[in-house]
């Protein structure tokens, strides 16, 4: 297997490191137009072949990972698929739903693997939370609440929704094993930014009767990376900022106790807190290994093109809702 990485900045360099550690990958090619970056990568990864243009690498690779700025994802991935290459595209997969659908069609027509880099879907704590929800241990899911907050980094070409929300949308879709049916969003601009730097999203999962509330911000005094799942029996919190105990299960709940006079007093349950042991595996390593394995076996990736499309649809709908002040309905997509 010969794999190229297009765009070798902060995240692309991480892919290079991981790929050099996968035994099934025989050749890793770094593709970046910044000569200084290539020189640094050559010193850091002596076994990696470094080239400045995609044209130089097309005949050298079987597959490629696209880690360039989001607006370029679609055009680069389209070119790779047209050349018969398997592709993993970083999040968000494309800048529009139309682009995402085009990539899916190209991959299906060519019998190629198309995967989206939703790294949190390969995070052991998120997988444990998904399994917890699926087991019914939390009861019926009432709602999810997620916060991804920090001071910066302001992006020059997209708002905070397109920058931060892809992570949380993919986490929630993974945990619920479902896609939202409607999106409502509100955003605001501060500090002179031309784009929204604070936003709130509400995702309705009508097919399972749950909702999710997302808060994303570039303008917050502390770094927060937290997802809460509230069920009828128990509650769970995934906190990615903790070194240990990232997933905690709270045996807490509230139950209505109707009386003959029509009153509805509430009964509160306060139980213990459990933090299950979760063996750590690097999510990016799991993701890239999965990409290579899917290419070898022809299996459908866990985060395939449709998973990427689902996130892009929510991002587009959120932008539309911010601009119009209305809830945007999402029609079901028929998968091949």
Automatic annotation (TrEMBL):
Top-rank taxon: Bacteria
Pfam families: GFO_IDH_MocA (PF01408), GFO_IDH_MocA_C3 (PF22725)
Domain Gfo/Idh/MocA-like oxidoreductase N-terminal: 1-118
Domain GFO/IDH/MocA-like oxidoreductase: 128-235
Single GO term (MF): nucleotide binding
Protein name as it appears in the record: Putative dehydrogenase
Organism per entry: Longispora fulva
């Amino acid at each position: 297997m010969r794999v190229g990485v297009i765009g070798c900045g902060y995240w692309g360099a991480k892919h290079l490191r991981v790929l050099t550690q996968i035994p099934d990958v025989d050749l890793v090619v770094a593709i970046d137009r910044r000569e200084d970056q290539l020189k640094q990568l050559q010193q850091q990864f002596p076994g990696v072949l470094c080239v400045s243009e995609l044209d130089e690498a097309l005949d050298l690779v079987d597959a490629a990972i696209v880690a360039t700025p989001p607006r370029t994802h679609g055009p680069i991935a389209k070119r790779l698929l047209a050349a018969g290459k398997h592709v993993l595209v970083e999040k968000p997969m494309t800048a529009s739903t139309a682009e995402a659908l085009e990539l899916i069609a190209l991959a299906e027509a060519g019998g190629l693997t198309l995967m989206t880099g939703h790294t949190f879907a390969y995070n052991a704590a998120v997988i444990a939370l998904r399994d917890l929800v699926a087991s019914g241990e939390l009861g019926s899911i009432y709602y999810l609440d997620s916060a991804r907050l920090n001071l910066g980094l302001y992006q020059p070409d997209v708002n905070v929704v397109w920058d931060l929300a892809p992570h949380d949308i993919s986490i929630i879709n993974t945990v619920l094993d479902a896609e939202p049916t409607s999106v409502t969003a509100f955003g605001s601009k501060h500090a002179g930014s031309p784009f929204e730097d604070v936003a709130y999203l509400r995702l309705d999962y009508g097919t399972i009767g749950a909702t999710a509330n997302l808060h994303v911000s570039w303008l917050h005094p502390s770094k927060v990376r937290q997802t809460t799942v509230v069920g009828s029996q128990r509650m769970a919190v995934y906190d990615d900022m903790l070194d240990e105990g990232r997933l905690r299960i709270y045996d807490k709940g509230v139950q209505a106790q109707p009386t003959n006079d029509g009153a509805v007093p509430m009964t509160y349950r306060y139980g213990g807190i459990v933090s299950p042991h979760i063996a750590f595996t690097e999510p990016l390593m799991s993701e890239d290994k999965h990409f290579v394995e899917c290419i070898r076996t022809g299996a459908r990736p866990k985060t395939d093109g449709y998973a990427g499309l689902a996130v892009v649809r929510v991002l587009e709908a959120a932008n539309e809702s911010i601009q119009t002040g209305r809830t945007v309905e999402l029609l079901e997509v028929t998968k091949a």
